[in-house]
């Protein structure tokens, strides 16, 4: 029996040594694992872009190819943008003749996938309609919410298989999924499972992610000031790109106002190797977000064997087991965050024990080859169901 041909829609790093965001990291790890699987003939990843790019066609290996598809995006309307992307990828689809389309996310990638007339698998990477609603501050923002609501409703009704990465997104989308739902955790890179050695002697807190208000790095800095009062040797390392220049400037200004310049290091946008080293070099990961689904950086920290202190939002409670692999705090509670971080840093022996429990947990859930095998089963389910165009429509369910 011939292997499956998979057409993947989603972000993929232009520079594999410098990945931007959790979904890029997940897609990078998953596609590599799929290409290594004997049941896969080939994976073709299509990535949309607007500006200049080094190469439009990259062959990663004989079974994994990436195409960067330029689309002008002549209109700001979500529906029109999706139509432009569909027209742009149809020639690729005809030439590749895939067995299944896999969209990473329930946003435009999935909206394009369900229009291609092939069996479709969609992975939930964040609740885009919820995020749009939280960000809406004016009339254009509220109109955008309506567009996202309609798109998510359409995608979830028509996709043959929806992959949930957490119980949180399962609950949030209850009643909206028209066909099959399967739970599969995100894959992370195999390098994070390699032996990492003991935590550093210097008590070190790491934040790794995009510097934006949703991540509440300002609140983390405030909490860190309290930690320094209890653990004077503590250091904070901040790693990640800063697309919101104004917010990044506010974070740096707050560090200066609190007199923490000697204790806080900003690494900026790091390479994969630098991120891995930063995770290995930390005592504890801190993630103080207001909203998350299933953060890749937490899975990476657990795989390396480091404890995590994070906000109890979204699917984080399914990843961090209080007292076992780390601690959870209420979002925005800077005093609680400081207390838990200080507790971890004051007892590095127990922190190491929590880290080892986290490593065992990560092996069970995030190991890439295991995730790839589960994903292939989702493909086979979708193929057996047929393309969305052949599936009878059901009434739209309300978006929650």
Helix tally equals 13
Q: What value does the Rg take, in angstroms?
A: 21 Å
What kind of assembly state do the chains in view correspond to?
A: single chain
Low-confidence stretches: 391-400
Number of strands: 14
Distance between the amino and carboxyl termini: 42 Å
Reading the helices and strands in chain order gives EHEEEHEHEHHEHEEHEHEHEHEEHHH
Helix percentage range = 40-55%
The fraction of residues in strands falls at 15-25%
Characterize the structure shown.
The protein is of the alpha/beta class. It has helices at 22-36, 78-96, 108-113, 128-135, 139-158, 167-172, 217-230, 245-257, 272-280, 296-304, 334-346, 348-366, 368-385, and strands at residues 4-9, 40-49, 57-61, 64-70, 100-104, 120-123, 161-164, 180-183, 204-208, 235-239, 264-268, 284-287, 308-311, 326-329. Residues 391-400 have low confidence and may be disordered.
Which SSEs are present, and which pair or pack?
Layout: E1 4-9, H1 22-36, E2 40-49, E3 57-61, E4 64-70, H2 78-96, E5 100-104, H3 108-113, E6 120-123, H4 128-135, H5 139-158, E7 161-164, H6 167-172, E8 180-183, E9 204-208, H7 217-230, E10 235-239, H8 245-257, E11 264-268, H9 272-280, E12 284-287, H10 296-304, E13 308-311, E14 326-329, H11 334-346, H12 348-366, H13 368-385
